[in-house]
Amino acid sequence: xxxxxxxxxxxxTIGKAVAKAxxxxxxxxxxxxxSSGGYRADIxxxxxxxxxxxxxxxxxxxxxxxxxxxxxxxxxLTDENFAFALGHKLMGQINIVRAALxxxxxxxxxxxxxxxxxxxxxxxxxxxxxxxxxxxGFVKAASHELPRGIRINCISPTVLTESPxxxxxxxxxxxxxxxxxxxxxxxxxxxxxxxRILRV
Length: 200
Description:
Blueprint: E1 4-8, H1 13-24, E2 28-33, E3 39-40, H2 46-56, E4 59-64, H3 79-100, E5 104-113, H4 126-142, E6 151-156, H5 178-190, E7 197-199
Parallel strand pairs: 1-2, 1-4, 2-3, 4-5, 5-6, 6-7
Helix pairs in contact: 1-5, 2-3, 3-4
C-alpha cells in the first residue's frame, strides 16, 4: 500500500537513506530540511512545525532523522548547551508529534531517533545520553496514549559508516551503514510494532 511519508532531516546521512528506501518501496516522500528544499522547518521552533504540517496537509507517517545535541566534558557544559540539546533533539521531536497529530491519518505512524549513547555512554557524551533517554521514554509512554490507532517507535543507531569523523569518539564501536538504519525506519513505519526502540 502506497503511503505519503514526511521525512524530516532529509538532507542528512540518515534522512537521505530513509527517503531513498521509502521511494524505492513505492511511497510518496515529502522531504523536509532545515535550510534547503521545498519544505523547510526548524524542529526547535514549534511554530515552524505547525506551519510545516499545515502546508503539507494530510499524510500517513512521519520519519524524523533530525536532532542536534552538544558534546563536551560535563564540567564545561553550560546552561545554554543543556537548553539547546533539550530544546532541539528532545522537545523538537515531541513537538513534531504534537504538531503533526491534526494532520496524520488514522493508524498512521511516527519514527523518531535516539542513538547508541542511551545504553553506551562515551566521554563527552553526557548530554547525548540524557536526551536520547528522554526521547526513548517519550516514545514508550506516548505509544499508549496516541489517538486513532496511531503508532510511534524510535530508531537508535550507532555511529555511521558514512561519518568517519565521528569514529574516534566511539572507540571499539562497530559502525553501521546508513541503509541498515533506513531498514529499521521502514520496519517502524510500515509494520505493526508500537512503542519499540529499534537498535541498529
